[in-house]
Structure formats: C-alpha cells, structure tokens
Batch of 2 targets.
Target 1
Amino acid sequence: MGVIRIDKKKISDNDILELAINGGAEDCSSNNQHHEVITAKDNFYKVKLEIEKKIQEFISSGIEWLPINKILLDQEKTKFVLNFLETLEDDDDVQHVYANLEINNNFEEKILI
C-alpha cells in the first residue's frame, strides 16, 4: 500500500480529505500529530501528485506493508512484543520492522512508561 503522512499543521482535516478523495486514495485518517493517506500501490504517485499541488513537505511517503488483520494482546504480551520489536529496530542489519499489533488504548500509557 502507498502511505503518505503529513503534519497536521500543514493542512486541515477537511482539506486533506478532499485532496485524498480527488486523488483516488483508499483511506484518509488523522490523529493528534499527522494525517495518513492510504492508497493502492498502483495509485500511489497519482495521489501523491494531487496532494503535492497544495503541500510540498511530507513527514513520510512511500510503499509500506500494512496488516490486513490486526491482533490485540494483553498488556504483558504487548510489552514483550514491543521490547522485541525495539530490539529488532536497534539491529544495524534490519532496515524496516512491521507488525500487526494493535495496542489497546487502556494500557498504552502504562506500557510506554
């Protein structure tokens, strides 16, 4: 899938949604820090060019692996998996790490502390 992440300070929720729809994106979501536009791999550059008409700087843009099915684990297993993923990311031979873990908002802060 194509993924384009844009700083929320660069464009409003409504404007990015309009650009994403006009460009042919499959999904557009926003959180507290950024907007995320999801496209089909074959449609990535078309959508990116449409967004670049208004915004020149992205947090990131590229083709990424996205999970089809996400898994939700209990707090202990989630902490173990996050530590394992961090260990993988610290390895110089590893370029990218992907996971299908969905973190429960109820204990997200407890894990990260």
Note: Helices lie at 13-23, 44-52, 75-90, 108-112.
Target 2
Amino acid sequence: MGFLEIISMVAALAVTLGLFGLAVWGWKRFAPQGLLTMASPRQRRMSVVETLIMGAHHRLVLIKLDGKERLVLLGEGRMIGGDAGGDAP
C-alpha cells in the first residue's frame, strides 16, 4: 500500500465525516422544532424527588405519584417497604 493510497483514504474519510457533520448542522438549523424534541407532550405522573443510600444494599427513595409523595425502601433488587400513600406532612 503506497503513501498516496493512504493519503487518498484519509481524504475520503475526512470528506465523508465533513458531509455528515454538515448534514447534522443543517438538520439542527433548519428542521421544524416539532421534529427535534423527543419528549412526550403529556405530563408524567411519576417522578423521583430524592434518593438516599442507606447502606451497601438499601436505598430510600422519595417519589411523587399523582401529586402525592411516597417513601419507598428498596434493597437487593426488590421493594422492601413503602408507605400506603397516606397524607404525609
């Protein structure tokens, strides 16, 4: 393989990557905003508010579900305990 063939391959790779970069830039610049966002338009019902690592295998998680906060204890790949969703201060 000669020196000119290596230069030719590197130049072809540079041109290909340059065209791909130009296409990505054009897509971000000129695409409609609705196509750029991946998020769903609906509101999510559940979110993780805070987590606290209790030990090597246990984690305390505060989640918000349908506007109410619930405390869940997770450990060793399963849910160990959680509140019943009562009114908490």
Note: The helical segments are 3-30, 33-36.
